[in-house]
Amino acid sequence: MTNDAAAATDADVTSESDETDVPTAVGVKFGSARTALAFDDGDGDGDAARTVHLPSRPADGEDELTGDEDAHHGGEAVRESPERVESMLRSGVPATARDAESFERFVRELCARYDLPADSAVVYAMPTVDDDIGLANFGTAVGECDIGEALARGFPESLCASIPALGDGIEAVDEVFVALNLGATNLEACAYRRGERLLPFVSAEVSGDHVDRRIAEAVEAETDGRVTIDPATAREYKETHADFDGFEPFTDAVERGGEGAHEFTVERGVMEPLDEYLDDVVSELGDFFSRLASSHMKTYQLARARPLVVSGGMACIPGLVEELEARLAAELDRPVNVVVPDDPVTAAAEGAHRLAVRLRDAA
Questions:
Q1: 334-350 residue pLDDT tens
Q2: Among candidates 145, 144, 152, 142, which has minimal Cα distance to 120?
Q3: Which residues contact 310 (CB under 8 A, 6 or more apart)?
Q4: pTM of the predicted model, to two decimals?
Q5: Residue 197: in which H helix or E strand, if any?
Q6: Contacts of 316 (CB under 8 A, 6+ apart)
Q7: Cβ(293)–Cβ(264) under 8 Å?
Q8: CB 325 within 8 A of CB 141
Q9: What is the DSSP string of 202-267?
Q10: N or C: which end of the chain has fewer CB within 10 A?
């Protein structure tokens, strides 16, 4: 690995092992709502992947890994009552000591649940954050867990997610391209030049979480204030009903004190916030490409000939990527080719796993 890709995080989580057995390669992407985990399977083909909901911290301060599980992207999910919780990775890293303590317990539970050995080579897909304390908390928390004794490294999340989108190996670290992460916590964009990260950009105001809040506000406005929903319910509406190819209005019901169930129909409350979100994404990307052209003209020219890699949970919404491609082409006044990994949610963990295999085998 080269330059920035080899030193992707300030969290010092690198270690070495003298074990003669081949360590298990593990790729992990911790998220504010979901955690994706990819690791070697028992047959040694290195393709087993699991997806779990990252349990947020309940309001009473106790963590839960409850058994209310459902399928998500072919994996496993752990769900909690959304009104009782707050995320311990609000910015992608544990910002406080309390968050770090909850995060460490979660990592231990995750390792135990999936039987991840201490003798493992782990690559963490790291978000772009300007939080030295949070990064230090992250490094301390994962360093205290029984995982990554052979090797532990952090690489940019958008680079990891681009790896399965651009080839069957790790060709992405040798190419020039622009990556866009449409995540729950942040919008991230940056250029990569043979593994080196250039001009990283991040915005918390253009994010999936922000869309959820807008949906909650839009539903309240659409029902003239008769219905209020929390962001977790708004997120469920987005993930279940949002569709740029053919949205259909839907009906839901809420309990209103002693009045019983109150039914209401959502017609504009989901897609209008998403339409605004895409406009904001395109605006930010237009500014990003202008800055890239000004500061790294050769990289900009090379990246124009390559696909724009888009990952993150928002990319799972039907029709969103195609709509983004069309709007961005109009904004830049040139054709834009967007490529998306097969599963935008697990792509970062899958790419991190491939890096872990390469680093382990090269050690």
A1: 999 999 999 998 999 99
A2: 152
A3: 179, 180, 181, 182, 321, 324, 338, 339, 340, 344
A4: 0.84
A5: strand 196-203
A6: 239, 344, 345
A7: no
A8: no
A9: EESSSSHHHHHHHHHHHHHHHTTTS----HHHHHHHHHHH--TTT---EEEEEE-GGG-EEEEEES
A10: C
Q: Using CB atoms within 10 Å of the CB of residue 270, give its burial: 0 to 12 exposed, 13 to 18 middle, 19+ buried.
A: buried
What are the tokens at 334?
């040139």
Nearest-angstrom CA–CA distance, 229 and 220: 8
Structure tokens at 191: 């250029």
Report the half-sphere exposure of 170 (CA within 13 A, side-chain side): 20
Which residues are registered as beta bridge partners of 27?
38, 123
Which residue blocks in the chain are alpha helix, DSSP H?
Answer: 3-6, 97-113, 132-143, 157-166, 208-222, 231-241, 271-295, 297-304, 320-332, 347-362
CA distance 28 to 160: 10
Q: Is the pLDDT of residue 354 over 90?
A: yes
* pLDDT per residue as tens digits for the range 19-49: 457 899 999 999 877 888 999 865 545 455 5
CA distance 91 to 102: 15
Cite the beta strand spans of 40-143 per DSSP E: 48-53, 57-58, 85-86, 120-126
* Terminal-to-terminal C-alpha distance of the chain: 12
